[in-house]
Amino acid sequence: MAVRKVAVTLPEELYDLVERARAVEHRSRSEVIQEALRTHFGEATYRPTDEERAALVAALDAAQAEPEALQDWSEVRAGLRNRR
Q: Where is the Ribbon-helix-helix protein CopG domain positioned along the sequence (predicted)?
């Protein structure tokens, strides 16, 4: 697959959302933005459950309040799987 670099200007609030998501999910900025574009244009992507979404929001809030206490996303997902 061919890859092209694109420079994008984002409002501060969108940039902050991307940065928070990539910190919690341990993903690159490009991965987060690519998923957002795929979602926007209708390509099938992973859809978190309400419980997973709530855990992600809680993790984003915790990461902002206490960055040194970040959990690895695989640990968070494993914890969610164990609840089922």
A: 6-40
